[in-house]
Every structure is written in C-alpha cells, then in structure tokens.
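Quick one, probably user error.
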C-alpha cells in the first residue's frame, strides 16, 4: 500500500535548522528565562538608555503642533473608539465597490453608527479636523467660519441634508486620497523616487515596497513579478551606488510571487518560486541595490527559509551583500532563526542584511493556534515579552558583525535608545547598522536620531508604492498593529502618560511579571475553560510533527476486518464485503461482514436488557467514560486518520479535523450530561412541597450515520445517545464500516459495556429498515438524505407502539450571497473552500454562489484562476487539495449532472485531473454560471459550484428563492454592510449562517450544527439543546407537610 504523507517529506535538516522548528511552540516562560539575560542592560547603561528615550519622547511631544498625519490620526481615531475602526472598514470597502447604490448603503450603514460629532473641533491637527469634515462633507481642506466652529453639529446636519450621501461618498474617497498621500510614497516607483529626493525626505534611505496582497492566481503572481522587475530596474537607474547598504532597496513578498505559497506545496514552490526570487535577486545585484524579503505568517517560516537560503547559496550571488530578509521578533523561533542565518552567512563568506521587526500578524497567529488546536502559540502573548525578544535578537545581530548588516525597524523610543547603546563597542566605536521606520510614521521620533548632532545613525524608510486601492489592506494592518492602546505609536503623543512610564524597560517589566504569558489568553487546550478540553490538532506545517505523524501512519497500513459487534451473536456465516480505497480501487484495504437477521434480533434484545442499568449509572460516570474515550481517540489520531484517508478518501487536513471533531463531541456531550443529567432540576412552587424534574434515557436508540463524516458524525450521534442514558445500536454507512468498527472498539475499551453499545453493519434496506420498524426502538438519530429521512419517519410512524423520537440532519441547497462590498479575493477563497473542500461532500458545502452583477465578472475570472491552482489526487499526500468522491455510484451521479450543466449552463472552470486519478472515483471540480436557481432540481453532493448573478436592489428576491427551495442548512454572506448582513440573516430560514468566512467546519459547542425545513428536524448537534432530545423527562412532587405541619414555614424567621 502506498505510504501516507512520507513521500513528500524533505530530508532531515541540519541541527541549526531543526532548532528553528523545535522552538515553534516553546514554553513562553522558559524561553523568556533564556532571553532575559541577553536583553538585559547593565544598570548604568539602562539608566542612560532610559534618559535618552525620555529625551526622544519629549522631543516628539514638543513637535506635536506640527505632527504628521498618522500620529494625529492615531491619537484622534485610536482603536479604543469605534470610529477609527469604522473609518478603515468604510474606506477599504468603498474603494472596492463599483456601484454607487451599494457605496451609499455602506456610508449610511457605517457612518450612521459612529459618533463623528465628537471628533469635530477636538484635535490640534488641522488635517485631522479637515479629514473629518472631508469625510462627511466636502472632501477638501477648508477654513471654518467662527459660526460653524461654534455650532459644528448644526452645520454638519445642514450640510449633510443639503449634499446627501453621494457627496459624502466622494468625501470619504477624497479623505482616503489625502491619507494615501501620507502613507504611500507614490503611485509608481518613478513617483516614489522623485518624492524621496525632495526636501527632508532626502535625509533618509529607502526600501520600496510594491503594494499588493498575496497572489491568488498565476496571473496575479505574474503581474507582481513584472512590477518587481520594473521597480528594480527603475531604482537601479538612479545609481550607481558605491555602498549596497546605503543604496536604496526593494522589499519583496514571496506570497505575492506564487499563488500556492504554502507548506503543503513545498516541491512546487521550490521549483517555481525559487527561480523567480533568484531572477529578481540577480537583477538587484546587477544594479547595486539592496534586496530584502519580507516576513510572512508563522506557518510559512520554514518554507520561506528554504526559498531564501536556497537562493542565497546560488553561485551567481557570490560576493554580493545586498540579499537579506526580515525576521519577526514576536516569533518564539526568532533567536534560532538568527543563529541559522549567521551560520549560513559565514558558510558563504558574506554578510546578510537582516531587518528586525516586531511582527505584523499577532492577532491572526493567536486565533489560528486556537482554531488549529496547537499545544501553544508561535508568538509571545504579551507585547512586553516581544519587546524583550526584540532586544535579545538585536544583541545577537550586533554580535555577529561578520555575518549581518543589522536593520532595526521600530517606532519605540526605548528600543531605539537601547539598540544605540548595544551598538557601541567597548572602545567607543560603533557597529554599523541602521534604523527603519514606516513612511508616514515616526518623522518626529527619528528627526533627532538621524541628525548629525543627535544619534547620527542612518534610518531607512519602508515606503509603499502603488494605488490607493492597494494601500487599504496595508493601511488597515498598520493601524491595527500600531493603533492599539498598548502601542507606543498611539501613546507617545498622549501627555497624560509620563514619558518615563512610556519608555519603561521591558526587561524590568517582564522580570516583575510572576506569570509571564498573558493571563487572559489561555493555551489552545484550555480555550473552553474548566468545562472541557479543546481537541488537539497537528501542525501540518511543522516538519518535525509531520515526520512523527508519518511514522505513526505507517504503523496502520494492515488490512482491517470488521463485522457486527453484538455479544452472543455469531455472524461468521455471512459473506464478507471487500473494501477498496476510493482513490485507487486496485487497493484492497479490508473487509467487513454484514449483520444477519439473527444478529439483529440479538442486538435488539441485548440493548433493551442493558439500557435500564446504564440509565441508572450516574451521569458523571457516563461522562467520565466518554471523556476517557476522547483521550484515547486523541492519542490514536494517526490510526483513525489512516482509516479516514484510505476508506473515506479524506485528505490529511480533513482527516485531522475529522478526529478532532469526534473528540470534541465526546467531551462536549460529557460536559452536557453532567450539567443537564447530573442532578434533578429544582422547580419553584408553593411552600410545603418540593418539585423537581429529572432527565432519563428513552431506551434503545438507533444511530444511522453517513459516510461523509464516518467518525465525527458517527461518534457524535452515539456519544449523545449514550450520555443521555440510552443503549445504542449503531448502523454506519456501508462505505465506511471499518472506521465505525474501530470506533466502537475504542468506546468499549474506554468502558462502555458491549451490550450498551453494539454495531450492526449492513445496507439500509435490510438492517436499517428492520431496526426502524421494530417496536423496541425508542428513537432514531439519522444523518443522510431528505428522502431516506422521510422513509424512516414513515417506518417509525407505522408502528403500533410508543411514538418514537426522530432526530434527522439532512441535505441542503446551500447558498453563498455576495454583494459588491465584498472583498473579491476573500470571497473567492471562501467559495472555493466551501464548495470544493472534502470534494464537496459536506452537508454544509456551498452549492450556489449568488454574486452581485457589478462584481460578477471580476469574481468569476478570479474564481477560474484560483481553481486552476487546485490539485486533485491522492488524499494521502499533503500537496493534494481535493480527493476522490466516495464511490462509483456518486461519481456517476456527478457525471450525469455535469453533462446536463454542459448543455444548459455556461462553464466557468474545470479543475484538471492528474494521471494519479485514473484508478479512483475522482470527479473534476467545476463551476458553472446559471441564469436561475430553478435550473437545479436537487442537491448535487459533490464539488460543483453554481454561480448566479443578481442586481443589487434584488437581494430580497435572492433570499426568497433560497427560502423557496425548502432547504435551510447553511448560508454564507459576504458583505461589509451590517444592515445588509442583518437583513439577510433575519429573513433567511437557515440553521447556520456564516458571515465573511467560509460556511463549512462548524465547531462543536461553538457553532452548533443543524438545519430546518427539508434540512432536518433539529435540535442542533453540538449544541445545548441536543442531549435532551435523547431523553425523557420526569417530575417528582413531594408534599413535605403530609406528616405534620409545614416546618419550613413555621420556623421562618422575621
């Protein structure tokens, strides 16, 4: 059998590189213990640094009357007020909205929420006042009359009433142009170079950044590559420069040069991206300018190092000292990265420029670690801890003069002063280095730094180049990064904060913190507090973890044999059913035996006899068994992943998520059982009696689960029924019996009695029909098609016995609605994930994308380009995006639908199938444009996305069409207009609505999952109302006065 994961793993790297990966999630307190001595200054030096930092702050505050726009803006629209954030949201979205109606709606929606009046006349900066008035009224700087100043609010109301929303819309755009001029060096590299030579700008060095986000398509990457080529050539034409360190430089983002710049695509990235980087580096070398590669997210660090160091080693760059990179000090791996870079620089005999930054994606890194269930965080959780790391990293850079040309990017006065002190040698000479700041920020802070009579250290300006549209995402990041209340940039102009407090030594602060990590940022494991543990995931970008996983997966390749798990039954006489890998039908991975009639009868008898004792077991005991099962499952994640990949065709990321969801179900229902079933609920009533309500199991529950989530949904149903006190007969889908068999074995091992939980594999017509028609069954939990749910409902209703419970989660004609305020890049990413992840075989998957006509062409072009980057193939390889559909029957249905769509719809794109797909049940993901939703007659359960245009004023009609389908499972909404979001969410009859994200991957206890109408009965799985549906309620009333007087009333004190 072909190995899982291991064929794509790289060779074991050298120790220095392994150390980088080893520090990914290193304990924060232990790490700081090692870094504090490196960051600590001597008492005399610390006092000198403090005094110099206070002096810098005082100079900035003295210059506040002539402060730059960004400092004034940060003070006036800081992130402690909603207005600053709203301004960015409005501006970013407005510059992307092509139609006026939606732009007007956004203005009305956002500006109506903000207390803009509070900003008028409150700032010492004329520009901030003008920007406020410009945003709301004219879009240009105007002198205000005295009467207007006295009654600004009245004037605002009069002008707003007279001018209306269209003028306000233009005003917002104009205000953003004003700010854009402050933050963007020029629309073109030529403009930026001219501006850099004017006036005070000429005192600085420059590193030019070509604005733009990560490439989504090959076309995007090609466009960015051309832009970098032109920029390098244009910058170089202003030379020659005798010193590469003093020369201007270009800043390059690797994610802009490749549409799949991610760890799982390592081989492709190295083959395609590295030559592009080398070409640009050679071009920069030929022109004698600097070349710096920007930092990316934490899970791209190792891949970045592969590309960067691979190119650095190329013989064509020998002797050139202009090739460098940025290192983020908030990463715990930063010190190890510096050690690795020093070794590489020395090995090749030349210095490497290194820009030390604090880091730009802190909030995203924290969230991602929580979502992925990592053991810790890749970044420091306190800002002051990052400051210590920065100083420790700075000392390492300065100590390796032979390896580095250090460049320190900071807007923090203490950091500037501390590094200046560190750079002084014992003989009074100085280590060559430079500072860096962002264009539009820190002019006042750095004026005395670069002055000959000041610190006399050069400073390089990180200067964005591009259009205002490209500026906004960059600007939002800068504002979020630097505008937080803890930010030095935000606080430096606030004279209520003493300068000495502002420049406090971070080493002293960290030393004084008894608990080093942030006390309000729990480890991912403890995300849900004391109630339950979060499931632990696997970092699929960590090569060390991947090697461990690959070894574990390799231990689970033996064929599996499954069958009924029914004490007292002997199914040995039934013929076995072979199981083949859906990605390659030539691979036989096991076999299973279906249950016969006698086995089924024995299972029902066992279940009925065993249920009362199980129900009498305290809820806390049942919960403890389920939690033990969760722990076992988590420890054996590789075993179940291997089965999910080979039997169900799940990709490796989907297999991780599958096991995690199963673990979460067990823990969540255990916690719910304790809280809802543990003790009777005491009810209010008249004095002299007690009233209480308790929950109990209904009896025998049949759990019928699907093949698309063969572990998570299977165990979710079973765990809920067991937690509520029922005995369970589990009937898994025929396609994934091996997984179900292994899961039941694990639950038995955890302590569930074998007669309380039994497995009855077989087809629905035989086993399912017999179970649902039997009088001994008290309830059925079913996930599958609406048609089968109806059949089960009829079978249960036809019995002449107690009315049974049916909990059904069925399909959906799930839609995603995007108006023209949506960010197209994010929309396309989320649409692709929602429609194609898991080969579209999710109940929650997006089937229809309604996109506003004004952006439809752009979105569909982008969708086609992004689809061209997808890889369909062996799900056991990390480079695979989409695996097979479950079987040939599913494939035939999808092929028939594609044939009809080819005739009746307009094809947008089809993903190519590779040669490794020829022996499996692979269906090429595709997208079509439809004219109406009525062209779809039923849910298409696979990777097909249907796109429909709509007019912006017809959004209610779109909602009506979705509601009219009768389905109501999931809905995605992409819009920046809150009123539009609320309108859709309030009118759409769906169970799960997701805004500005994908619409798959509901998290247990966080996003309870389930629909309405044709999509299910409810209650939602993984929610607080699910368990009681498996229970019956009993009340107990006791008259406490029956044997005498009412003691509690008679003894009542005054």
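Nope, works fine. Designed sequence:
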């Amino acid at each position: 059998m072909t190995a899982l994961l291991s064929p794509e793993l790289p060779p074991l790297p050298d120790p220095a590189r392994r150390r980088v990966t080893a520090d990914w999630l290193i304990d924060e307190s232990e790490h700081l213990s090692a870094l504090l001595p490196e960051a600590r200054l001597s008492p005399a030096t610390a006092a000198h640094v403090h005094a110099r930092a206070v002096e810098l702050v005082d100079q900035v505050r003295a210059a506040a009357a002539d402060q730059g726009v960004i400092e004034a803006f940060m003070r006036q629209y800081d992130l402690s007020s909603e207005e600053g954030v709203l301004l960015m949201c409005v501006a970013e979205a407005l510059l992307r909205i092509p139609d006026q109606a939606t732009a007007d709606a956004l203005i009305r929606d956002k500006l109506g929420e903000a207390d803009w009046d509070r900003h008028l006349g409150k700032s010492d900066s004329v520009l901030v006042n003008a920007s406020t008035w410009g945003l709301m009224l004219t879009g240009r700087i105007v002198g205000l009359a005295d009467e207007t100043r006295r009654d600004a609010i009245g004037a605002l109301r009069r002008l707003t009433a007279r001018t209306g929303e269209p003028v306000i819309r233009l005003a917002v755009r104009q205000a953003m142009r004003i700010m854009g001029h402050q933050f963007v060096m020029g629309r073109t590299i030529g403009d930026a170079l001219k501006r850099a030579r004017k006036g005070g700008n000429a005192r600085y060095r420059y590193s030019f950044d070509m604005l733009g986000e990560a490439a989504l398509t090959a076309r995007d990457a090609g466009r960015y590559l051309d832009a970098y080529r032109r920029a390098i050539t244009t910058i170089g034409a202003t030379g020659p420069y005798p010193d590469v360190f003093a020369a201007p430089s270009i800043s390059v983002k690797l994610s802009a040069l490749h549409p799949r710049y991610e760890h799982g695509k390592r081989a492709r990235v190295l083959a395609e991206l590295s030559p592009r980087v080398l070409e640009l580096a050679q071009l920069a070398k030929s022109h004698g300018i600097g070349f710096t590669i920007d930092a990316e997210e934490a899970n791209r660090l190792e891949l970045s190092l592969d590309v960067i160091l691979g190119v650095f080693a190329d013989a064509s760059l020998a002797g050139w000292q202009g090739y460098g990179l940025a290192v983020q000090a908030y990463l715990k791996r930063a010190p190890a990265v510096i050690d690795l870079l020093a070794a590489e620089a020395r090995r090749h005999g030349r210095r490497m420029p290194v820009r030390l930054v604090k880091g730009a994606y802190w909030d995203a890194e924290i969230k991602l670690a929580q979502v992925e269930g990592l053991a810790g965080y890749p970044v420091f959780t306190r800002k002051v801890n990052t400051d210590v790391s920065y100083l420790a990293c700075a000392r390492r850079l300065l100590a390796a003069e032979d390896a580095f040309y250090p460049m320190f990017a900071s807007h923090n006065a203490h950091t500037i002063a501390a590094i200046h002190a560190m750079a002084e040698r014992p003989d009074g000479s100085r280590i060559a280095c430079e500072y860096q700041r962002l264009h539009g920020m820190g002019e006042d802070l750095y004026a005395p730094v670069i002055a000959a009579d000041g610190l006399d250290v050069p400073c390089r300006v990180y200067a964005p180049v591009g259009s205002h549209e490209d500026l906004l995402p960059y600007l939002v990041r800068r504002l979020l990064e630097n505008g937080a209340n803890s930010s030095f940039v935000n606080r430096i102009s606030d004279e209520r904060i003493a300068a000495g407090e502002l420049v406090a030594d971070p080493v002293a602060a960290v030393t004084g913190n008894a608990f080093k990590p942030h006390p309000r940022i729990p480890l991912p494991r403890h995300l849900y507090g004391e109630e339950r543990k979060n499931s632990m995931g696997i970092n699929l970008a960590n090569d060390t973890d991947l090697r461990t996983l690959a070894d574990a997966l390799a231990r689970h390749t033996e064929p599996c044999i499954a069958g009924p798990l029914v004490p007292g039954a002997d199914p040995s006489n039934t013929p076995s059913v072979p199981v083949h890998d859906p990605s390659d039908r030539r691979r036989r991975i096991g076999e299973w035996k279906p249950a016969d009639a006698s086995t089924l009868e024995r299972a029902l008898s066992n279940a009925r006899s065993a249920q009362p004792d199980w129900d009498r077991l305290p809820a806390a005991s049942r919960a403890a068994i389920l939690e033990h099962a969760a722990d076992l499952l988590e420890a054996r994640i590789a075993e179940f992943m291997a089965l999910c990949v080979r039997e169900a065709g799940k990709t490796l990321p989907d297999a991780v998520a599958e096991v995690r969801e199963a673990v979460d179900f067990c823990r969540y229902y255990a916690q719910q059982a304790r809280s809802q079933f543990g003790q009777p609920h005491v009810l209010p009533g008249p004095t002299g009696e007690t009233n209480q309500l308790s929950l109990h199991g209904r009896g025998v529950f049949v759990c019928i689960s699907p093949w698309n989530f063969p572990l998570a949904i299977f165990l979710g149903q079973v765990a809920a029924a067991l937690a509520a006190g029922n005995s369970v007969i589990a009937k898994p889908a025929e396609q994934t019996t091996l997984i179900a068999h292994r899961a039941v074995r694990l639950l038995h091992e955890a302590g569930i009695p074998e007669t309380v939980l039994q497995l009855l594999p077989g087809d629905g017509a035989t086993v399912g029909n017999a179970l649902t028609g039997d009088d001994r069954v008290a309830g059925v939990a079913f996930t599958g098609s609406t048609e089968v749910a109806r059949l089960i409902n009829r079978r249960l209703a036809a019995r002449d016995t107690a009315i049974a419970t049916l909990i059904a989660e069925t399909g959906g004609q799930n839609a995603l609605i995007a108006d023209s305020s949506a960010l197209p890049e994010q929309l396309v990413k989320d649409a692709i994930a929602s429609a194609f992840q898991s080969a579209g075989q999710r109940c929650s998957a997006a089937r229809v994308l309604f996109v506003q006509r004004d952006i439809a062409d752009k979105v569909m072009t982008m969708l086609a380009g992004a689809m061209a980057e997808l890889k369909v193939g062996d799900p056991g390889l990390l480079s695979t995006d989409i695996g097979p559909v479950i079987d040939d029957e599913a494939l035939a249905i999808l092929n028939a639908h594609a044939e009809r769509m080819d005739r009746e719809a307009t094809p947008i794109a089809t993903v190519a199938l590779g040669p490794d797909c020829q022996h499996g049940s692979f269906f090429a993901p595709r997208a079509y444009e439809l004219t109406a939703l009525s062209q779809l007659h039923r849910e298409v359960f696979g990777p097909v996305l249907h796109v429909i245009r709509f007019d912006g004023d017809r959004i209610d009609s779109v909602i009506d069409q979705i509601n009219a389908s009768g389905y109501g499972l999931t809905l995605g909404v992409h819009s920046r207009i809150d009123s539009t979001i609320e309108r859709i969410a309030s009118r759409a009859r769906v169970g799960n609505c997701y805004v500005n994200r994908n619409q798959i991957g509901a998290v247990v206890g966080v996003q309870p999952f389930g629909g309405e109408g044709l999509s299910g009965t409810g209650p939602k799985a993984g929610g607080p109302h699910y368990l009681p549906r498996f229970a019956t309620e009993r009340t107990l009333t006791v008259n406490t006065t029956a044997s005498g007087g009412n003691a509690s009333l008679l003894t009542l004190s005054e």
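Confidence is low (pLDDT under 50) at residues 76-86, 123-146, 148-160.
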